Amino acid sequence: MEHVSSFAQMIASTGPLNAPHAGVERIEWPQLKPYKPDWSALRDTRIVTGSRFEPANAAFDVLRTKVLRLLRENGWKSIAVTSPTAGCGKSVVASNLAFSLARVVDRRIALLDLDLRRPSLAEYLQILRPPSMEKFLGGTATLEETFLSWNDSLAVGVNGSPVADPTGLLQNPSTQDSISKVQEVLRPDVTVYDMPPLFDNGDVLAFAPNIDCVLLIAGAGSSKMSEIEASERELARVTNVLGIVLNKCEYMPNRGAY
Ligand SMILES: Nc1ncnc2c1ncn2[C@@H]1O[C@H](COP(=O)(O)OP(=O)(O)OP(=O)(O)O)[C@@H](O)[C@H]1O
Ligand SMILES: [Mg+2]
């Protein structure tokens, strides 16, 4: 296992939420119901990478490039997104990364809300009648009932309400079967799992056997260096640490005219 993450990436605080942006062409993924986002509404929840024309995309496109390079070099396909503590921006980064990856031609991406304690992707992606990830993982709902498709390239599985025993469900063999089904049926090039904070519960460690690597999100101004280092060490015991994202940066380095 790696003990030092492979890259660090800064993402600016996205600031006020009022810039206009354009829509994108949408093609349906065969057997799944379509997901048709309203990008101007999604901007209110800071999901900006569905549109090519959104200035805030730049950092996510750089992140995508780094992620794709490392996945390719290592033969990895699944990423869990976590952070030391709550509120660092895991769900925002996981969603934006997933859309950014899905905009690469010929890629198929799956995005799953596995924060079974505080699911938020349904709200962030504005999926009004969310299916039950709990039922899907438990084997009582089908993949077609659970996942929506955006643009024939991103399959999204969200969750409507908190689960009573998340760690137990994540360790249940039915979860492993369901995760395998996603891989067999959808054949995603990359799977992104939005997960809870590392130090609040054992969910990430319980799910670690199902992932190739983990992306650690630190909140600028909220995550302590000691927490980030402790997270890296803890994660490196059970999986590969893909990199660290320093999110919500108020002050970015001056990159000059470009
Ligand atoms: N780059 C950013 N700039 C400004 N605000 C951000 C940024 N990323 C996330 N946020 C905001 O921070 C808050 C927490 O984000 P998010 O829900 O993604 O965090 P989280 O780590 O998933 O939280 P939780 O631990 O509760 O699951 C949200 O209000 C979100 O809009
Ligand atoms: Mg979250």
Description:
The structure is a single chain. It is built from 10 helices and 9 strands. The protein is α/β, with parallel strands linked by helices. It has one domain: P-loop containing nucleotide triphosphate hydrolases (Rossmann fold, 3-Layer(aba) Sandwich), CATH 3.40.50.300. A 9-stranded mixed β-sheet has the order 1-9-8-3-7-4-6-5-2. The longest helix has 18 residues, at 57-74. The model is unreliable at 15-28 (pLDDT under 50). Adenosine-5'-triphosphate (ATP) binds at residues 11, 13-14, 46, 83, 86-92, 115, 118, 120, 197, 247-248.
Can you summarize this structure?
With 258 residues, the protein is an alpha/beta fold.
Write a concise keyword list for the protein shown above.
globular, 9 strands, 10 helices, 258 residues, nine-stranded mixed β-sheet, binds magnesium ion, binds adenosine-5'-triphosphate, Rossmann fold, alpha/beta
* Outline: globular
CATH homologous superfamily placement: P-loop containing nucleotide triphosphate hydrolases
Number of strands: 9
Mean pLDDT across residues: 87
Q: What is the CATH domain class?
A: Alpha Beta
Helix content: 25-40%
Oligomer: single chain
State the low-pLDDT regions, or none.
Answer: 15-28
Total helices: the number is 10
Cα radius of gyration in angstroms: 17 Å
Lateral strand order in the biggest sheet: 1-9-8-3-7-4-6-5-2
Strand content: 15-25%
Give a list of the ligands. Answer: adenosine-5'-triphosphate, magnesium ion
> What sequence of helices (H) and strands (E) makes up the elements?
EEHHEHEHHHEEHHEHEHE
By secondary-structure content and strand pairing, the structural class works out as alpha/beta
CATH architecture: 3-Layer(aba) Sandwich
Which topology does CATH recognise? Rossmann fold
How many domains, in number, for the residues? 1
Cα distance spanning the termini: 36 Å
